[in-house]
Amino acid sequence: MTVEASAGPAKVAVVTGNHPFDVPGFHALFRAMGGVDAYVQDLENFVHDWGQMRASYDALVFYNMHMDSPPSELAQAMINGLGSASQGIVVLHHAILAWPGSPEWESLTGIEGRSFGYHMGQEVRIEVANSEHPITQGLSDFDLQDETYTMADICLLSTVDFATWIGLPMEAEFANLKAWHDRVTARPSSQA
Asked: Model pTM?
């Protein structure tokens, strides 16, 4: 996948914090994206914006899990300013759960009353639907140990929508999945 800004590679701020991740693997993921110049940074650096770069990013990717409620004054000011610049905003994985007491973050994520449960150390089976697709090329099914969340509708909706976006649409024989998808996408919270 290649993403291009109007001039040169897309400048993307990748905001992290309060959740561990595989640092070399995470950086390698963004380095492998053609046309993306990713600036991985923790929330504190992003909200302080010492270089006054925040408004110049083409896109913002949030991969943080700050559970302080309400957010710090600086974080709240940053959240309030999201959408004021012409930038793409992507909220990945556990970042949808960040700042549970922030109505502005709730509005941004499109999830009302965000609450969740999680279970550490779960064995998760990953089934690769299409090993010929550029994103999954060469992969086969595998198991991993990870945490699981009890926000089934949200996780499944983002998975189904992402699969459609990358060219793996719902097949006609999955009528129950289609009916569920129609119900969930009709909710006001999924219209954000």
From this structure: 0.66
Q: Is the dihedral of CA 9, 132, 21, 108 positive or negative?
A: positive
**Count of structural domains, the chain:** 1
177 domain residue, yes or no = no
Domain of 97 in residue numbering reads as: 1-116
Query: Domain for residue 149, yes or no?
Result: no
Q: Please name the amino acid found at residue 130.
A: N
For residue 155, is it within any domain?
no
Residues 6+ apart with CB under 8 A from 185: 157, 191
CATH of the domain at 61: 3.40.50
Asked if residue 70 has a cis previous peptide bond (ω within 30° of 0), the answer is: yes
What is the rounded CA–CA span in Å between residue 189 and residue 185? 8
DSSP three-state, residue 54: helix
Kind plus residue range of the DSSP H or E element containing 17: strand 10-17
Whole-angstrom CA distances from 101 to 1, 41, 43 are: 35, 23, 17
Structural domain includes residue 180: no
Which helix H or strand E contains 156, and what residues bound it? helix 152-165
Write the DSSP symbol of residue 65.
-
Q: Distance between CA 152 and CA 1 in Å, rounded?
A: 28
Query: Tens of pLDDT along 132-188?
Result: 877 788 889 999 888 776 665 666 777 888 888 888 888 888 888 888 788 777 765
